[in-house]
Amino acid sequence: MTDQLVIPDSLKPSDGRFGSGPSKVRPEQLEALLAQGRTVLGTSHRQPPVKRLVAALRSGLAELLGAPDGYEIVVGMGGTNAFWDAASFALLRDRGAFAVCGEFGAKFATVARNAPFLADPIVAEVEPGTSVQLQTSHGVDAYCWTQNETSTGVVTPVRRVAGSGEELMLVDATSAAGAVQIDLAEADAYYFAPQKVFASDGGLWFAAMSPAALERIETLSAQRWIPATLDLQVCVDNSRLDQTYNTPAVTTLALAAAQVEWMLDNGGLSWAAGRSAASSTTLYEWAERTSYTSPFVEDPANRSPVVGTIDFEGVDAAAVAKTLRANGIVDTEPYRKLGRNQLRIGMYPAVEPEDVAALTACIDYVAEHL
Question: Per-residue confidence at 337, pLDDT binned at 50, 70, 90?
Fold first, then answer.
């Protein structure tokens, strides 16, 4: 049986975690958490120790992402799904336009479609594995798309829609922020969760917001009834005090702060993006030269540097993933709703590029012995 196949230790990566989120947490992050645990864990999040942690994380993210003057890092509870709900109240004034190339881009469009106080959204949708960019549309006040579609491994550039004016650009960067180059001036709300690139737990969202986005939030929050837990103005006000509206997962904050500090100490965004680029180059070149594999995303310009999806032909990818897991190499399974014979590989900065090369050797070994 395939789950009894033993991969030689000489082939295995130093760390077998390749999840697309939650992602690999470095041991050094855990050590940093233990070092400061007595000052931040089990204490009030309204007091200086935790507020200093939030302040360090906010300032670190602003530095890492190159936030222009006037942009603010806002933090809220509930992860990206909660942010979509909140954005429907206070960032979409009447109608949004959405680019959809996978599961996660579609979710925000669905939120807007179901909101009774918004007009029907304009949706540009393409087949999974390809990318689509928005065009100007009459009556739209916000353009929304996903920088990195985690379900398919498609990356889409972040740049303002050609010909647009005062409309907001809302970019889901959940699995891209911190590992893909970005000019934040091209976005008004660049939002993400910490369980991907930042190697932390879920349950929070962060957003780099432009002055225009902050103004839209202030205006709409004054005009609409919004539940307090989804009110982005409440999030803005609390973030300016380096806190959250209700009790946050402090461990999540601490792990993310340690990851941001690691990135900055080693060279910032260019360094972090370079690690993911090196890993993805290894993966895609292997997939292209191997007889039974091919990158799911055909256009190299659209291939994600952080989440690689690889199709298999003549080899059962599910059996490969099962055998890898039995050997301590985990979370290579494909996105469940795609239903393809493929593997999905997370290549965030915490993953050693050499480990991606080792992973491909392990896959070849398993495929040969199936």
Answer: confident
pLDDT attached to residue 2: 44
Q: How far apart are CA 111 and CA 140, in angstroms?
A: 16
Q: Is the dihedral of CA 44, 236, 91, 208 positive or negative?
A: negative
What is the DSSP annotation of 216-267?
Answer: HHHHHHHHS---GGG-HHHHHHHHTTTS-SS---HHHHHHHHHHHHHHHHHT
**CA-CA distance, 309 to 108, in Å (whole number)?**
23
pLDDT in tens, 67-106: 999 999 999 999 999 999 999 999 999 999 999 999 989 9
369 near 5, Cβ under 8 Å? yes
- Between helices 103-114 and 79-90, what is the axis angle to 10°? 40
Q: Could you tell me which residues come within 8 angstroms of residue 92 by beta carbon, excluding any fewer than 6 positions away?
A: 112, 115, 118, 141, 142
Calculate the alpha carbon distances from 128 to 35, 153, 159, 243, 282 in Å: 44, 9, 21, 38, 23
DSSP state of 116: T
How far is residue 155's CA from residue 159's CA, in Å, rounded to a whole number?
13
> From the CB of residue 139, how many other CB atoms can be counted at a distance below 10 Å?
9
